[in-house]
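Q&A log
Question type: sequence-to-structure
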Amino acid sequence: MPPFDRNDPRTSGASPAPTARDVPDDAGVVVADLVKSFGSVRAVDGMTWSARRGRITTVLGPNGAGKTTAIGCLLGLLRPDEGSVRVLGTDPWQSDAEHRARVGVMLQDGGLPNTSGARRLLTHLARLYEHPEPPEAVAQRLIDRLGIEPFARTPVRRLSGGQRQHVALAAALVGRPEVAFLDEPTAGLDPHARLATWQLLRSLRDEGVTIVVTTHSFEEAERLADDVVIVCAGRVAAQGTLAQVVRSHPGGSDGRPGGPSDGRGGRDDRPVLEQTYFALTGGRTDAAHFEENR
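Response status: OK
Response body:
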């Protein structure tokens, strides 16, 4: 299967690539006809997708697909060349401090100060926001919810990768954001910590927080997402609920577990989203492919 091309019926699926007219009225995050280039490289090429308020949207795509660039525009770190982005109805590039206080961000590089412990850091960050409770109480609530207490006083530089992830997530949520952008929030976590993080994110969604998660984990998307966006080559290959994506595009068929032929007369039992993703982005996961390349 060739990589996604919105003009190619083999990969575009049953529905055309979305445009700005397809953005729902209840969207808290909007990417509309976004174009962003770096020199001669067009990293984002007419991308349109949205995240509805009070829902979890997962964004998947190969490295270089334009995910990071689009998120950079949504955070106000990059200025679009064409098109527009909006977060809570505001252009992030021109946003003020009041708007930024309503947005939480967790990036892969962390940006945590190496010499500070989690409790001290989270208490300091809590003082930067307006809260009806003391900063120490805000920090303690996140420490309890994310299981940080055992290493709350340990300097960040001495924490494991998973422990740093917990602290970075807590830092993104300390301001009680209305929108949270989380880049691979469960990377490096053990199974128990991963489930606890998913439970926390679901509870935040139920409280009305709009959450955008970029991930390479099909399991995370299937277990966590209300809506899924798949991007490839700077454009949107598919978006909608999980059921809509797998039923309307190649690889998903009827949306039930079990994908295409496994090359041995049976059906591949990998998650349906995985099959749809590889069909849309140009990869193959079937056993016949591995036999061909042995």
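Response note: Residues 9-102+177-241 form a domain with the Rossmann fold fold (CATH 3.40.50.300).
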